[in-house]
Here is the input.
Amino acid sequence: MISAVLREEILTCHSCKLRDGCRSPVVGELVGELVGVGVPTIMLVGEAPGEVEDRKGRPFHPTAPAGSILRALAAQVGIDCYWLTNANKCRPPGNRTPHPAERDACYPLLLKEIVEINPRVIGVVGLSAAARWFGNRTMAVINGDARAVRMRGSDVVRVIVPIQHPASYFHQGRDTRVLEIIKVGLERVLLEASR
Ligand code: URA
Here is the structure.
């Protein structure tokens, strides 16, 4: 779905120190099957690969805790085809949150990915993925919000929807209300994509 040139650029990137501590950058992937227009109208962007993703080389791996939840909830709300990727392509040591400078270093790759995939709506999963456009407002406030933004360094304007990160389900003692909050965010993505 992305060009071989961009894939190579991601895999050979050394723009920040995260590359030194991970096995390999994780490239985005298409989830589901394309029908009709032949391009996914939805893109979901996580924060950064975790331990399983780093090992297996896929974003939000289906067998990893966060990946299994995100993929299952997306399917439950009816998002059956989307491009899945991360704002940072390399796993931070110990799964720490990427630093703002690391997010900035990876942003040109994300922008190129957005331009190539050309989604109608982008769901940003987790605060560090959303921070570029929503500042340091808490996820409790911005989950499911939708905002048309112009991507810095381009004329590209897209609708962005912040979504609570599925890892918070585990951080909050498997509170099932977290799953409902994530679904609210995903449902808003689907609504915006159908406008
Ligand atoms: N968390 C993320 O934000 N992305 C992944 O790919 C895995 C866990």
Observations:
- The longest helix spans residues 100-117.
- The mean pLDDT is 96.
- The beta strands are 29-31, 42-46, 82-86, 121-125, 147-150, 157-163.
- DSSP finds nine helices and six strands in the chain.
